[in-house]
Design goal:
The chain is mainly beta. Helix content is 5%, strand content 53%. The strands form 5 sheets. Strands 1, 2, 3, 4, 5, 6, 7, 8, 9 and 10 form a 10-stranded antiparallel β-sheet that branches. Strands 14-13-16-17 form a 4-stranded antiparallel β-sheet, with no helix packed on it. Strands 22-19-18-25 form a 4-stranded antiparallel β-sheet, with no helix packed on it. The longest helix has 18 residues. It is rod-shaped.
Length: 368
């Protein structure tokens, strides 16, 4: 605020017409939209001292309040730091406002400082004294909305995400007082929203979710941030098989695909449905070969596990013909495709995988 002294009677360091520059800081109290019923004023005065007082709304754009401070006086060779009591009144008027997000904020201000009587508390009265000044000023900086931001930590094993609000106040430093999280997961019901700074949310199904945070500060200004959070899903198990020459040996090709989120596949468990082959009935290779013990129909199953610990399986029936006579010509290879689509095959896979994984594969024991 820049002001001019309009009264100065027996006030040391002041004279009529003196130009003064002071720093005043206002903060709203009991505000409803554009109207604050009170203001807190932190004002600089002479000798780089500061006072705090509360201004009450007395009209449209007008605020007034009273306070007091003490000044030092010398009396008979002694200095009295609180020798003079100075009661005063400050009145502030908003002469120009700007609109931000539909809310009005003061831009230009005028103010008056009035002290009608300074009270000498020493034994050396100096006589009646008082002072007054008029000020004008421009509010700076004008408030700006807060900057919404947040970080995400995802537990891939449980599909639970932990969120942390990292938003920053806007110009003027008004604190953030309200938050609204929307997790983009309407199937979760009332858990789809939250209002705390660090919420957790468990997504109802694998997929990509648009998670939003809206923050509002003490000025009533707000901003939003949206990020896509991927809740991972299990892989898809699939394979093909090719007969090697005209024998009962088949080569198997893993064609499995990562699930939602793209976690790579790190484990394979094959069961060839050939109980007579002993330990060779299972394999942990990605693309194994198996020599069947004889012609017949075998149910071949594959369970795959990804880096998140999620697994999936699929089975397919494989018809193994009798090997061709040694003098005969080689028969063309055959291809079988496996997948998890058939419910009957899924049930068979479940029964088979329980027995086989318990014997030899820790990676498939934790099926989801």
């Amino acid at each position: 605020m820049r002001g001019r002294v309009v009264a100065a009677v027996r006030v040391r360091g002041e004279h009529l017409g003196q130009i003064v520059s002071r720093h005043w800081t206002f903060a709203g109290r009991s505000c409803v939209k554009s109207v604050c019923h009170q203001l807190t004023l932190h004002r600089q005065r002479s000798a780089d001292r500061y006072d705090n007082l509360v201004l009450t709304r007395v009209g449209t754009g007008r605020y007034s309040g009273r306070s007091q401070f003490y000044a030092g006086l010398r009396c008979r060779g002694h200095t009295y730091p609180r020798g003079e009591r100075v009661p005063y009144r400050i009145t502030v008027r908003v002469t120009q406002a700007v609109t931000i997000q539909g809310l009005e904020f003061a831009r230009r201000l005028t103010a008056t400082y009035t002290n009608l009587r300074r009270i000498d508390r020493t034994r050396c009265p100096i006589g009646p004294s008082h002072d007054a000044a008029r000020y004008t000023g421009i509010a700076s900086p004008l408030p700006t909305p807060p900057a919404a931001a947040f970080s995400v930590g995802l537990n891939a094993a449980t599909d639970t995400a932990s969120f942390t609000d990292t938003s920053a106040p806007g110009a003027g430093g008004a604190p953030i007082v309200a938050r609204l999280w929307v997790f983009g997961d309407p199937a979760s019901g009332s858990a789809n929203t939250a209002g705390t700074p660090t919420p957790d949310h468990t997504f109802t199904a694998p997929g990509a979710y648009p998670v939003s945070l809206i923050v509002t500060d003490a000025n009533g200004l707000s901003s939003a941030e949206t990020q896509t959070v991927v809740a991972p899903g299990p892989p898809t198990a699939a394979f093909t098989s090719t007969r090697v020459d005209a024998s009962t040996t088949y080569a198997f090709q893993d064609n499995s695909a990562p699930g939602v989120g793209g976690a790579r596949i790190v484990g394979w468990l094959w069961n060839f449905g050939d109980d007579q082959s002993g330990d060779a009935d299972e394999s942990a290779a990605q693309n194994p070969e198996h020599a069947f013990t004889g012609p017949g129909t075998y149910q071949v199953c594959l369970i795959v596990t990804d880096a998140n610990g999620r697994n999936a399986g699929g089975c397919a029936d494989l018809n193994v013909p009798a090997p061709a006579p040694a003098s005969g010509s080689a028969q063309p290879g055959s291809t079988e495709t496996g997948g998890p689509q058939d419910r009957r095959i899924r049930a068979q896979l479940s029964k088979r995988s329980v027995a086989s994984t318990a014997a030899s594969s820790p990676t498939s024991a934790s099926g989801r």
